[in-house]
Amino acid sequence: IISSKYLKRVTRTGFKDGLFEVWRKDPQFVLNKPEYLGASVLIAGANFGIGSSREHAVWALMDYAFKVVISSRFADIFRGNSSKAGLLCIQCDEKVVEELWGIVEADSTTQFVVDLEVCEIRCGSLVVPFQIDEYIRWRFLAGLDDIDITLSHTADIAAYSSSRPVWMPSIH
Questions:
Q1: Residue 155 CB coordination number (10 Å)
Q2: What are the φ and ψ backbone dihedral angles of 83, each rounded to 5 degrees?
């Protein structure tokens, strides 16, 4: 997904140019085609994210403007990093992925609706239900990341911190 030379940065942005860098040198690569410019849904091959489990791969996809990746299988660490960063990974049967590819190849202007409320993808007349962990779904619907969730417990953290003995480390 992204070359290791980009892994030295710690910001969450600035990775767009590194996304699929080697493949993007090929003028025939799908993301180089003008009809797919600005796409927010990536329909990917099986085992997506294997070998690209670091957060940088997720950040590169998001920096490129992808909000959803649909695949028949994801690498576990990649999926976990994606859900924490706000990139939705939807796993579907491989035949469904191939059908989605076919629809988009037939008409590149096809619009997708990814409805997290009812857990389904709508694309033309095709309706594809999907499953997602309820906690991850809740986080996406609430727009929360790990920092937001931690900050929602500020009062509890302060109460705990104030009850600790003075000789122990504090968070003042």
A1: 8
A2: -65, -35
Report the DSSP beta bridge partners of residue 121: 114, 128
Residue 53 in tokens: 């489990």
pLDDT average, residue stretch 114-140: 95
Distance CA 86, CA 17 (A): 20
Structure tokens at 92: 């579907």
Res 67: pLDDT: 96
The single-letter DSSP state of residue 172 is -
pTM to 2 decimals?
Answer: 0.87
CA distance 121 to 110: 13
The b/e string for 97-108 (b: 16+ C-beta within 10 A; e otherwise) is bebbeebbeeee
Q: How far, CA to CA in Å, does 46 sit from each of 62, 65, 112, 123, 156?
A: 20, 21, 20, 20, 43
Averaged pLDDT of the chain: 91
Residue pair 70/43 in contact by the 8 Å Cβ criterion? yes
Angle at the Cα of 51 (from 76 to 139), degrees rounded to 5?
A: 35
